[in-house]
Amino acid sequence: MIVRHTPSWFRLLFVWHGSVLPRIWPKLAIVAAVALLAASIRHWWLQSLHDSALSIPTFTLLGVSLAIFLGFRNSVSYDRFWEARKLWGNLLITSRSLTRQTLAARGDDADGRRFIAALCAFAYALKAQLRGLDAEEHLRRLLPPDALDKILAGRFRPALILAWLGAEIQRWQREGRISELQWHALDRNLNTLSEILGGCERIATTPIPFTYRVLLNRTVSIYCLLLPAGLVSSIGWLTPPIAVFIAYTYFALEEVAEELEEPFGTEGNDLPLATLCHTIESSLREMQGLPLDIPAPPKQGIYLY
Prior knowledge:
Elements: H1 9-12, H2 21-40, H3 42-49, H4 56-106, H5 110-131, H6 136-142, H7 145-152, H8 157-174, H9 180-205, H10 210-235, H11 239-261, H12 273-288
């Protein structure tokens, strides 16, 4: 995620790092080349076609329709991003609730510490599953030895951690260490963690339909490449800068939607899952009265991961 102080409106015009320009400038260069060619041969073009259908009114109608489609695409992508952020916010809230309930029921005993450490391990395992990484380092640090081998051998490690947590509170209730009412309260919050896991998996494994992405990409590309032919009859050599500016708007909106569509990645506008995991572990350690000596994930320039 991009974290930076908002510059003035003038400096914002020239921001490079954190913008989509590094990814769309080759497309803009192609549009500029087409626009220069159209302006160069505009006299031949106008004499050959006379009243061409590629005129400004035609592109105005097409542009309005295309803007509506791009707006819908961005809304869908942002909904996915915001839902993912709410799920991880709920993960922090639920982890704190489980920690509070565990401390109230068990105090600062060994079983309670193992349980809370496993909650931290759940967050790291979920991040690793969503990003296709390996969280073995954190799992070995946080999980008890009797559960570690089974969880490391599994494919869906967050679900296995939840199963272990459920077995732990069941054992506490069976041994009379917590009441049935306390067991129900803990189990409800574990169910919430299970719902968070399922919600994140649904977002990660269900992208926007590929056919829709292909259609929008083709439409935007063809529109921007044909636009100089519609502008050149009216504005002449002003066609290249105007065409590039309009193309920038459409290509940038499409690129932003592409980034927001997959909120669990490592691009500039994706969620900082490593930082969120660090926040969860720091918060739970503070509730236990433990030192906050865990290293924060490195910040690379303006990016948090």
